[in-house]
Amino acid sequence: MFSGLNKFLKIILPKGLFYRSLIIVAAPIIILQVITTVVFFDSIWIKANKGMTKSLVAEIKTLHDVYNNDKENIDFLTDSYKNNFNFEIDVNEGHLPQISGERRFSPMDRSLRRELKSVFGNSNYWFSSFRYKNAVEIKIRTGKEIITFLAPKEKISTSSARIFILWLIFPSLILVLIALVFLKNQTRPIINLAKAAERFGKGDYVNEFRPSGALEIRKASYEFDRMAKRINRHLNQRSELLSGISHDLRTPLTRLKLQLAMINQKEISKKMSDDIDEMEKMLNDYLHFAKSQTQETTVAINVNHFFNEIAKDSNLTNLTYNISDKVVLIARKIALKRCFHNLIQNGLSYGKNVYINLSSTTNWLIVLIEDDGPGIPEDEYKNVFKPFYRLDKSRSLNTSGVGLGLSIAEDIIISHGGTVQLGKGKYLGLQVKVSLPF
Q1: Boundary-marking domain end, from 295, 327, 351
Q2: Which one of 25, 170, 175, 273 has the lowest number of neighbouring Cβ atoms within 10 Å?
Q3: How many domains does the chain have?
Q4: In the predicted model, is pLDDT for residue 393 greater than 60?
């Protein structure tokens, strides 16, 4: 029972901290208002209204009885009531109105109807409390004549009810507005921390972040800032280390190339030179893998121009792309260019042609990269994203790489908050589906 209630509350209650905190503050105020209003109307206002209505009906009954017993002195009595109680009394022959003047959901009308019915019966009275602004009209049948009374509304209702409701609601609204201001100031540092963490997760710099808010939030923000700086320092140190290794290894490789050029046995020299070229290619792949996780400032990228640059810079002749929508993407341009270049080169390495199709939904850019190569078995889709993993089937061994192309691409896509999926394309080769938020 309680488990079902808990699930139901989780569904209907807001998910944000600001609105949940607002409910915590506003709910007791609203409940207190409801309880106070119910108690006031039930025990004070309704009882006071009932007593006033009963007194008015008693006065009307007195006038009615006096008129029936002594019609000659009725003018003196009506004048006295007009001067002393602000009553308007008129006697005419006629019939009661057929259309009811009673308001269905009015407590004041309900109380007046109840008192008139108990004194004059079901069909001997008629009243309207809204025909006149400041008076209530009551008609009483006595024989063939109709006695019309115009009594001030103050006789059956009290104005303190409106004043009470006004003073009940107005301070509550002020308290809720004050709570909104304070809650906004308390939740803003949490929102800023979440945005900074999201930006950092996508590889952006977070140098402008400053801890603020309550003590606990400041402590969490301070620890996040320290963690981000440690991770950035670690990435920079690794990048510098690999750059130094690259520089140190390139020097002996260059010397080996020069020595091989002086060997007379050209066949052996060529084989060894090819091995050295492969070592340099592997070294470059290692460096690209490390650079994919380094920091870079995000910029606005026009997707149309972006893929035109990739095709132009890479001199790709077997690349066909279809761009239907103009989309501006906020991303790290160099990293994203390296990602799509790796995916395109991967397709051209195993197929003759690569086809790119771009489309967009409400908040996502969808890029489909397909080739006409042999494809990849479905049970290998997850493995090919592992660093240094190389296939022995369908795509065979690729001696030109070390198995880091898809790893680099996936790492860059995920760091931008996107996803990458593999599947079988319509050209019977591999289909790479990249989804990026914008």
Answers
A1: 295
A2: 170
A3: 3
A4: no
